[in-house]
């Protein structure tokens, strides 16, 4: 008898955890599972602000998928998804077509530019291993270039658009990295400017208590970060960013962390979306196609208060676990289990040894919060790769290729 075919698109938090849970929980060769991802590694997005700034190596933020997947149970295909055809139950890859009985979409998010002119052309975003390698190299290049063109002070101006979690975490790392780069390139630290521009009146996402936000700003200011709050970027040019007031801030580096939207492939496939994300039922299935599960940043899950939960790795992991369980329940003809989000808290790094956050409702800050952030990262590695992965990545700090 033909086994039900499950295709999982994307080996990010949602897709990878779905695959790992199916691998663990399926009986024998109950399902024919294929995991598709454009790289042969999984990247730890929650760590990417560090290699982007150059305070850590990018290979510490990725893990070979071959180390996580049992090829006897899950077939891994390194390929790029070009199109999803839910009407025909098939997916078009760059090198072929895959058909499925059940599909899991975990293709993550894309940078939201809100149509701001020049943003795509002149700004960089923290998205992937490739993007952070580029950002790191670019930052170093600007330090080197500034010495050859000493009149161009703007070469040492770094603008970060958006002071949500991504912008804040990156700015904290960059501020830590600047003294090292100044020494390497013989640059006077007084010539370097890091400007974080935020449309709302305060940095960090709404919902974080005011005293934690103030603490975060104080830490950043001590490191030399300048804030421009209640200030909108309305355009981006080769020279820098144009603010709502018309002022031009000349900058050699623009990092855009103004928000994300779901992967465009979903909208192109005819799914009904809001900011590229698909609203899912209580069991994480598409309302239009009940054989399609949507996880992570591609999905909108509503809270009991009726607002969408933020797109985070934390929820993506829990969604992956639920999707795997419900696929098995479906093929076994059993009742599905609704997804219930267990919010454990949020911690945002502010650079070396500093962080702020909430542990459920308890406020945490400083070294303790930074330690907590490390624990959260380690817990995730344990979840996907057990002790051997924790051993490799945390204890021995092994790089991806070693
Ligand atoms: P992703 O993890 O983005 O994975 C998507 C996967 O799909 C990737 O492997 C990608 O290569 C693959 N893919 C995409 N398109 C294609 C295609 N066409 N074909 C084949 N493969 C494709 N959240 C937290 O909870 N805590 C944090 O501390 C935190 N820190 C963050 C720090 C940064 C700098 C950023 C940018 C985000 C952070 N987040 C954090 C948010 C979190 O990373 C995302 O919510 C999470 O990664 C979403 O998981 P996902 O599975 O939906 O997608
Ligand atoms: P975000 O949407 O949370 O923040 C974007 C920020 O950019 C907002 O504060 C917004 O006001 C600002 N902005 C938008 N347009 C602007 C403009 N034209 N000019 C100036 N400012 C502008 O996006 P993010 O920070 O990339 O986070 C994306 C998701 O990833 C969120 O769900 C977040 O919770 C999650 N995340 C979590 C962590 C963590 O838990 N430590 C870290 C990073 C990201």
UniProtKB/TrEMBL annotation:
<comment type="similarity">
    <text>Belongs to the NADH dehydrogenase family.</text>
</comment>
<dbReference type="InterPro" id="IPR036188">
    <property type="entry name" value="FAD/NAD-bd_sf"/>
</dbReference>
<dbReference type="InterPro" id="IPR023753">
    <property type="entry name" value="FAD/NAD-binding_dom"/>
</dbReference>
<feature type="domain" description="FAD/NAD(P)-binding">
    <location>
        <begin position="5"/>
        <end position="320"/>
    </location>
</feature>
<dbReference type="Pfam" id="PF07992">
    <property type="entry name" value="Pyr_redox_2"/>
</dbReference>
<protein>
    <submittedName>
        <fullName>NAD(P)/FAD-dependent oxidoreductase</fullName>
    </submittedName>
</protein>
<keyword id="KW-0274">FAD</keyword>
<dbReference type="InterPro" id="IPR051169">
    <property type="entry name" value="NADH-Q_oxidoreductase"/>
</dbReference>
<keyword id="KW-0285">Flavoprotein</keyword>
<dbReference type="GO" id="GO:0019646">
    <property type="term" value="P:aerobic electron transport chain"/>
</dbReference>
<dbReference type="GO" id="GO:0003955">
    <property type="term" value="F:NAD(P)H dehydrogenase (quinone) activity"/>
</dbReference>
<keyword id="KW-0560">Oxidoreductase</keyword>
């Amino acid at each position: 008898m033909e086994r039900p075919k499950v295709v999982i698109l994307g080996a990010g938090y949602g897709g990878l955890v779905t695959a790992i849970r199916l691998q663990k929980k399926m009986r024998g060769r109950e399902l024919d599972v294929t995991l598709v991802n454009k790289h042969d590694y999984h990247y730890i997005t929650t760590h990417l602000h560090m290699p982007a700034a150059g305070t850590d190596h990018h290979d510490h933020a990725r893990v070979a998928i071959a180390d996580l997947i049992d090829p006897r149970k899950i077939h891994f295909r390194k390929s790029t998804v070009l199109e999803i055809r839910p009407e025909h139950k098939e997916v078009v890859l760059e090198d072929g077509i895959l058909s499925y009985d059940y599909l899991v979409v975990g293709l993550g998010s894309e940078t939201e530019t809100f149509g701001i002119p020049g943003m795509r052309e002149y700004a960089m975003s923290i998205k992937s291993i490739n993007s952070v390698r580029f950002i790191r190299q670019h930052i170093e290049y600007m330090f080197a270039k500034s010495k050859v063109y000493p009149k161009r002070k703007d070469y040492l101006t770094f603008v970060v658009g958006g002071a949500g979690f991504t912008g804040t975490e990156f700015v904290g790392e960059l501020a830590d990295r600047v003294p090292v780069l100044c020494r390497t390139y013989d640059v006077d630290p007084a010539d370097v400017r890091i400007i974080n521009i935020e449309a709302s009146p305060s940095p960090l996402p709404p919902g974080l208590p005011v005293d934690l936000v103030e603490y975060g700003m104080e830490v950043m200011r001590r490191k030399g970060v300048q804030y421009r709050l209640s200030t909108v970027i309305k355009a981006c040019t080769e020279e820098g960013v144009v603010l709502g007031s018309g002022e031009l801030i000349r900058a050699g580096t623009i990092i855009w962390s103004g928000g994300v939207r779901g992967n465009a492939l979903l909208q192109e496939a005819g799914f009904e979306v809001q900011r590229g994300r698909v609203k899912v039922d209580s069991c994480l299935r598409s309302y239009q196609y009940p054989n399609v599960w949507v996880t992570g940043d591609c999905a909108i899950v509503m809270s009991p208060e009726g607002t969408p939960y933020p797109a985070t790795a934390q929820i993506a992991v829990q969604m992956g676990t639920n999707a795997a369980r419900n696929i098995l329940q479906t093929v076994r003809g059993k009742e599905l289990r609704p997804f219930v989000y267990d919010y454990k808290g949020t911690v945002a790094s502010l650079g070396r040894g500093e962080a702020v956050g909430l542990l459920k409702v308890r406020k945490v800050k400083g070294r303790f919060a930074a330690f907590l952030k490390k624990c959260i990262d380690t817990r995730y590695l344990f979840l996907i790769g057990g002790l051997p992965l924790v051993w490799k990545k945390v204890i021995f700090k092994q790089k991806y290729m070693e």
